[in-house]
Design goal:
Bound molecules: flavin mononucleotide
CATH superfamily: Aldolase class I
Number of domains: 1
Largest sheet: 8 strands, parallel, barrel
Number of strands: 16
Shape: globular
Distance between the termini: 23 Å
Structural class: alpha/beta
Strand order of the largest sheet: 3-4-7-8-9-10-15-16
CATH class: Alpha Beta
Order of helices and strands: EEEHEEEHEHEHHEHEEEEEHEHEHH
Radius of gyration: 18 Å
């Protein structure tokens, strides 16, 4: 009932582990797939390893998480080893998430992984919590995003799909998605964390995160994510990986009604464990039985009619 085809990949369910949660090792990614997740996205990586920001860098609050992890990752060589190991152990779907500090670096990282045949390359141009180091994300500029899309798609070729990961900031996510589609993107992942935001310790009277600010994720951003997916669906014809604030089956169904083909889940896995995928799958099946839908396609985008 929940089996979903996404380009050449066959997913057991339409759920995707979002980038940044448990996506650093082959073993952790395979374990997530064993728990009813349809595809995993690696943690975003660039050429050289990055330490990221000082602790505390992840702060749970009532309606989500504030994170300033700062794109810490072990670098492309180490991630190539983990992805190769993943591929030697299973042929289930893996999406490789890449980023660069410069436009050229996106191309260098894409070159590194293209030979491993990931099921998709996700291009992170929208992390909001590295502004202090990198300035405005490339994803705020249609020109930069278009250039990165062309560069990565050129390297990925026709056999590896490329999804551009966008945020709700910048000149409008519909416009940005169109710029990606016009420049060769095969899919859009929407959205990244929102903000950045800040929370203050009222006794110490200082921001709690060492970085002071961090990207907001989890239930607090669900309405922004649903609206972003809705807007992208109206702007482009390519498929959408709807991500942001999904915690329950009802949240995931909203994403699909707004137009998502796949549903990314990050913070809910961090907060509730990988069992959350079984709960989401059972809830969607229940909904489909109630309304007589046979496949996800039967209700995808219906909120637009
Ligand atoms: C701790 C943490 C680390 C993240 N790291 C990345 C990352 O490396 N690359 C990326 O594209 N998104 C990253 N994200 C964003 C998520 O992939 C996702 O887009 C966002 O959190 C919204 O989904 P959620 O509310 O289900 O978490 C991270 C999010 C969190 C909470």
């Amino acid at each position: 009932m929940l089996k979903t085809r996404f380009f050449k990949a066959e997913l057991e369910t339409p759920f995707v582990l979002a980038s940044g949660i448990l996506g650093l090792t082959a073993s952790s990614m395979i374990r997530v797939l064993d728990f009813g997740c349809g595809a995993v996205t690696t943690k975003s990586f660039n050429m050289e390893w990055r330490k990221g920001h000082k602790a505390p860098s992840i702060l749970p609050f009532e309606n989500g998480l504030l994170n300033a992890v700062g794109l810490s990752n072990p670098g492309a060589d180490e991630m190539v080893r983990e992805i190769s190991q993943f591929k030697s152990r299973t042929n289930r779907p893996l999406f490789a998430s890449i980023f660069g500090r410069t436009i050229d670096e996106f191309g260098q990282v894409a070159e590194k992984i293209v030979g491993l045949q990931p099921d998709l390359i996700e291009v992170n141009v929208s992390c909001p919590n590295v502004r202090s180091e990198f300035g405005r994300p490339f994803g705020d500029s249609p020109q930069d995003t278009a250039a990165i899309t062309r560069l990565v798609k050129n390297i990925a070729g026709s056999h590896i799909p490329v999804s551009m990961k966008l945020g709700p900031h910048g000149p409008g996510i519909g416009l940005m998605a169109k710029a990606c589609e016009d420049n060769g993107a095969d899919a859009i992942t929407a959205i990244n964390t929102v903000g950045p935001g800040m929370l203050i310790d009222i006794d110490v009277r200082k921001p709690i995160l060492a970085n002071k600010t961090g990207g907001v994720s989890g239930p607090a951003i669900l309405p922004i994510a649903v609206k972003s997916v809705y807007e992208v669906y109206q702007a482009v014809k390519i498929p959408i990986i709807g991500t942001g604030g999904v915690t329950t089956a009802a949240d995931a169904i909203q994403m699909i009604l707004a137009g998502a083909s796949l549903v990314g889940v990050g913070t809910a896995v961090y907060e509730r464990g990988i069992e959350v995928f079984h709960e989401l799958a059972a809830g969607i099946e229940n909904y489909m039985t109630t309304y007589g839908f046979k496949t996800i396609e039967d209700f995808r985008g219906l909120a637009h009619e």
